[in-house]
Write a structure and sequence with these properties.
alpha+beta, two-stranded antiparallel sheet, two-stranded antiparallel ribbon, elongated
Length: 134
């Protein structure tokens, strides 16, 4: 195992949490979008991660495998004056719950901060180890 393996693991975590933050911010930005290029309301997205094991280096990490649509039901609101209302007067809004998104945002930002702290600790340990040889 390399001296830098821990840094690579933390870096993979940073990349994963950055992607997760991007997906969450996209969900928040589109929380009231009723019409997309594909037609219909915006569908909430979630980032899917998996373990990334490198047998040559003998280390673990995380990698993004996909960004998937949330299959939960869309929100219907009665507003017959809205341009996207159906024949019954209901408008289909995204299946985005701002409370859930904010909780996920806090969780992702804390995980990102943890990876930064771990990376800094590893950097300091390597620095101190180099000072021993002086």
């Amino acid at each position: 195992m390399s001296v830098f393996s821990g840094m690579r693991i933390s870096a993979s975590g940073l990349s994963a949490e950055r992607l997760r933050l991007d997906v969450i911010s996209s969900n928040i930005a589109n929380s009231r979008t009723t019409r997309t290029e594909d037609g219909g309301a915006y569908v909430r997205k979630t980032a899917i991660f998996s373990e990334n094991y490198d047998s040559k280096l003998g280390m673990l990490g995380v990698k993004a495998t996909s960004i998937e649509d949330d299959s939960s039901e869309m929100n219907l609101e009665y507003d017959p004056t809205h341009a996207d209302a159906n024949e019954d007067g209901y408008v289909e809004y995204p299946n985005v719950d701002l409370l859930v998104e904010m909780a996920d945002l806090i969780s992702a930002s804390r995980a990102y901060e943890s990876n930064v702290d771990t990376l800094n600790a590893q950097k300091n340990m390597i620095s101190k180890a180099l000072e021993i040889g002086k």
